[in-house]
Write a structure and sequence with these properties.
The chain is an alpha+beta fold. The protein has 2 domains: 2-112, no CATH class; 118-189, Nuclear Transport Factor 2, Chain: A (Roll), CATH 3.10.450. Helix content is 59%, strand content 18%. Strands 1-2-3 form a 3-stranded antiparallel β-sheet. Helix 1 (2-22) packs antiparallel against helix 2 (30-37) and helix 1 packs parallel to helix 5 (88-112). The model has no long low-confidence stretch (mean pLDDT 89).
Length: 190
């Protein structure tokens, strides 16, 4: 019976940590989790358990571990000595939790990594403006028109229209070349 309660408490702790860290449930605090799940455990012991499980979940989630990677990771954790390692029961609870919550945690992390509002669409065209009066020769100035569709998750799009003359188009292209050069420099360093 005590083992079943310990497993339930650990599952609750992992769910609580995930709710706070990955699903932005600010009302879930370390103190709340302690009072609800481990009322008899001294505060410093609970804090150590909480931080260990939070760190392990962060490692598992940031690597988006598949089943094989998870099992290898947890096996290595069970072989660590003392308070640095995890028990077989803790490893089993982590494994069960990750198998059931991987997709939700992954989706949450992807959502947190997106800039909002995001670019949903882009369309453009080049127009030639012409002017002619009283038989004068027509002359044209090309103008680039760019329409950006912007939006936040779950909301309707907003549209922004930009107009560029040839000089502005060249400035934008130069900036984009500079950005690409910076990215290439960083990528080639690593």
């Amino acid at each position: 019976m005590a083992e079943v309660e310990a497993t339930k408490s650990l599952a609750g702790l992992l769910n609580g940590i995930a709710q706070k860290e990955y699903h932005n449930k600010e009302e879930i605090s370390e103190e709340l989790l302690k009072n609800e799940l481990y009322p008899e455990l001294p505060a410093e012991e609970f804090h150590a358990l909480h931080e260990k499980m939070k760190g392990l979940l962060k490692s598992i989630a940031s690597a988006d571990m598949d089943h094989g990677q998870l099992e290898a990771f947890l096996t290595a954790q069970t072989k660590k000595q003392g308070s640095r390692g995890v028990s077989v029961e803790q490893a089993a609870a982590l494994s069960r939790f990750w198998k059931s919550q991987r997709a939700r945690v992954r989706e949450s992390l992807l959502g947190q990594s997106r800039w909002e509002p995001g670019l949903r669409g882009l369309s453009w065209r080049v127009d030639l403006q012409t002017s002619a009066s009283r038989g004068e020769a027509a002359h044209s100035n090309p103008v680039a028109l760019v329409e950006l569709e912007l939006g936040r998750s779950g909301q309707d799009s907003e549209f922004v229209c930009l107009e560029f003359d040839e000089a502005k188009v060249n400035q934008v292209l130069k900036k984009m070349a500079d950005i690409q050069e910076s990215i290439d420099t960083i990528v080639n360093r690593g």
